[in-house]
Write a structure and sequence with these properties.
single chain, Rossmann fold, two-stranded antiparallel sheet, alpha/beta, 6-stranded parallel sheet, 20% strand
Length: 216
């Protein structure tokens, strides 16, 4: 099959790559038939998590202190940058498929995977097709590693008590002021669970992404 676009699907903390098939199935419903997507599912390493007494979980990076709902998490910088570099290498490899055209490549993540997608895209040297983020936030560490301004679609629920709405909104507003094109879907009734608010999310995302792939 000749692919027209690539989506790098980045899973959440404690989850596995195949869990992102949930979002892939929704994408397939909202994308036009002419869009043929190569879905890529990177896997986070299993590592000890400090705030959980060193228990091992699948995680892109360690949480070094107790998680607080509306504060930026204290995370391991080296872990984050190491995994951002891993995502950048995947992008570089996919870029060859499209003769160097990064506009065909999208990052999509949920929860900690959303944080990774945002950090990886914001720090990348070229403009991508876009970054799609479900219920995460921009890690403050990446402020020092800004690359090219990206187009971003994100969503967050005001009843999210895992990653607080306020910290997500604060950073999206900050990056808007820096010139990033961010469409932020705010959902008053949605919580952190993947299915919460999904229908409204897909309606909003469908409009955004179809404009991006230049088919409407």
């Amino acid at each position: 099959m000749k692919y027209t676009h690539s989506f790098i699907m980045i899973h959440a903390f404690t989850m596995k790559p195949t869990d992102m098939i949930y979002y892939k199935n929704y994408l397939q419903k909202i994308l036009p038939n002419t869009v043929k997507v190569n879905y890529i599912y990177p896997r986070a390493p299993v590592r000890k998590i400090t705030c959980y007494d060193g228990q091992k979980y699948t995680a892109w990076y360690d949480y070094e202190s107790e998680l607080v709902e509306n504060e930026d998490d204290e995370i391991n910088k080296d872990h984050l940058l190491e995994q951002v570099n891993k995502i950048h290498k995947i992008i570089d490899n996919e870029k060859k498929r499209y003769k160097g055209d990064c506009s065909k490549i999208y990052l999509l993540g949920y929860s900690q995977g959303c944080c990774m997608a945002l950090a990886s895209g914001i720090s990348y040297k070229e403009k991508l097709g876009g970054i799609i983020g479900f219920k995460g936030h921009i890690p403050s560490i990446i402020d020092d590693y800004i690359g090219t301004k990206q187009d971003i679609w994100v969503t967050h629920g005001k009843k999210d008590y895992t990653i607080g709405f306020d910290v997500a909104e604060e950073y999206y507003n900050k990056y808007k002021k820096l010139g990033y094109n961010i469409e932020f879907l705010k959902q008053p009734k949605a919580n952190h669970d993947g299915p919460s608010g999904i229908r409204e999310q897909m309606k909003s995302l469908q409009i955004w992404i179809n404009k991006k792939v230049k088919l409407i």
